[in-house]
Amino acid sequence: xxxxxxxxxxxxxxxxxxxxxxxxxxxxxxxxxxxxxxxxxxxxxxxxxxxxxxxxxxxxxxxxxxxxxxxxxxxxxxxxxxxxxxxxxxxxxxxxxxxxxxxxxxxxxxxxxxxxxxxxxxxxxxxxxxxxxxxxxxxxxxxxxxxxxxxxxxxxxxxxxxxxxxxxxxxxxxxxxxxxxxxxxxxxxxxxxxxxxxxxxxxxxxxxxxxxxxxxxxxxxxxxxxxxxx
Amino acid sequence: xxxxxxxxxxxxxxxxxxxxxxxxxxxxxxxxxxxxxxxxxxxxxxxxxxxxxxxxxxxxxxxxxxxxxxxxxxxxxxxxxxxxxxxxxxxxxxxxxxxxxxxxxxxxxxxxxxxxxxxxxxxxxxxxxxxxxxxxxxxxxxxxxxxxxxxxxxxxxxxxxxxxxxxxxxxxxxxxxxxxxxxxxxxxxxxxxxxxxxxxxxxxxxxxxxxxxxxxxxxxxxxxxxxxxxxxxxxxxxxxxxxxxxxxxxxxxxxxxxxxxxxxxxxxxxxxxxxxxxxxxxxxxxxxxxxxxxxxxxxxxxxxxxxxxxxxxxxxxxxxxxxxxxxxxxxxxxxxxxxxxxxxxxxxxxxxxxxxxxxxxxxxxxxxxxxxxxxxxxxxxxxxxxxxxxxxxxxxxxxxxxxxxxxxxxxxxxxxxxxxxxxxxxxxxxxxxxxxxxxxxxxxxxxxxxxxxxxxxxx
Lengths: 230, 459
Fold this sequence. Notes:
The complex is a heterodimer of chains A (230) and B (459). Chain A is built from 8 helices and 12 strands. By secondary structure, chain A is α/β, with parallel strands linked by helices. Chain A folds into 2 domains: 7-123, Response regulator (Rossmann fold, 3-Layer(aba) Sandwich); 132-226, Orthogonal Bundle (Arc Repressor Mutant, subunit A), CATH 1.10.10.10. The radius of gyration of chain A is 19 Å and the shape is elongated. Chain A starts with 6 loop residues before the first strand and ends with a strand. Chain B has a 5-stranded antiparallel sheet. Chain B has a 5-stranded mixed sheet with strand order 7-9-10-12-11, covered by helices on one side. In chain B, 26% of the residues are buried. Chain B is an alpha+beta fold. In chain B, α2 runs antiparallel to α4 (151-202), α5 runs antiparallel to α6 (272-302) and α8 (351-368) packs antiparallel against α9 (424-435). Classes of the chains: A alpha/beta (230), B alpha+beta (459). The A-B interface holds A 14, 16-17, 20, 24, 58, 85-90, 93, 105-111, 157-159, 185, 187-195, 198-199, 201-202, 221 and B 244, 247-248, 251-252, 254-260, 262-263, 265, 279, 282, 285, 289-290, 293-294, 296-297, 300, 305-306, 309, 321, 324-326, 328-329, 331-332, 352, 355-356, 359-360, 363, 419, 421.
């Protein structure tokens, strides 16, 4: 995990969950500040600059969404990751509409959280304007929507291309199944089957079979990562 | 519409029964009045005729035939006896005295009462008066008839008859009109309550029955129903609040649990067996959480809040996306998943929910269908009604189990050991209900065809 020097504000009222988050994020290389209530979050949020702010939807004093709005109104540009026990799309949509950038439902796996934080932190990076993306010997053409390895074309269905594109854009980062569902299929719920695994399995056969090295790697318990060997 | 409802309503039927009973009683009373009045009038007139007859008969018996002729002539000339009819004829029917031109042909009996028309008789009324009279054969063989013009009487009873009949008819008419009006009012109020009930079933508990401010029993019924709805709404709200809080309160400790397990899993401090145990526990915990969120999700769909976000969606497009998502899974299962239907099949709804419902149906069809079977998703507009269908050629669902499969956690014996939690079809049912869509299951022999009929556009 490449947290690096990044600074994160965690807003969480449950002491144990907060403790776990701080500990694990620190281990992963993030610099973590903790706010245990809405007012605390408002104070800290406007005082320093954060790469990402994770915020609990239900706080003892001010509602998480209200905190987010107030910080946005104060001109805080940091992306928000809403963490909530209200795992309903309705709330997700409401949360995102109120200025949240991503949404995670309790209980989540820590790797999922890391994957999301990575993806959110990257948003502020400049996005390359290239039309051909390359990872190792894989090249995908965003205009003609074709992919090839070692100049040999890979035949892909439109959805498979979208999936591959998302993996390529997140090269070297872990993407969770939920993230794939959200970004490739625009689904904000879990169809609660292994449907994504099956789908990625087929894509992997098309991309990696009979190649010098595999590109798509399974990350146990969370999802996938596309990377070329060092 | 309202008129049909009025005419078929039970109030109206009761009113008809009441009118019928009342009508029979009124008719009986009126008939009695009519019959007794006319009998009384007749008996008075008969008594007068009888007295006159006795007078004449007395004269005849005391003084003989000539005296009788004399008194008849005297009576005919006497203004006080106007309206009386007399005739005395001999054995050959020749008129000896009297004010009738001839012996009435209708009066053939030798003695007793008779009634006849006497055209041209110069009695009081003139014209062709109705005469009632007493006939008697005298010992000499002559026949005597003493009678009275009863045209007036006849007219009188006729008038009573007309009055009675029109009275009865008028009562029937008024009662009919009144019962239609009263029933209509009742039906109108009941219809209002029905309409509100339907609106509540269709959209939510926030509808109330309008009051008319008349403080009558209907307003009281409406008030009480409204109070009941208020109470139910509060309770449902409280239950929802409780389940929301429960979701939060349960998820927090579960998050901690999961966090600890994950930490243990990644700490590399355990041997492989323990590691596997922890991994399995995390997987089971995730399964519990998924069931949990499926239930909250169904409950949340059932509150109908999502209706606010409804917009026009293209069923073909959604079905296509589901097929795209599941074709890898079908391929893995050796089944063939295909899609028929092109272009636009517009319906009003929530894209994510419809997607979820179709995905559940397709998932079931692949999982419970035959290995190497066929699953066809189709979407079309039939007579303006958007419909989406998922068809497989697997074992199907027995007809008597078809209603039960929508119950939460219900699983068919045959699928007890396939993965799943028995909530998929409950979710489909909840989504269908939210969209006002009708679910139809039919035999594909072999297999099952599942159809979702959405409400026609614009309704």
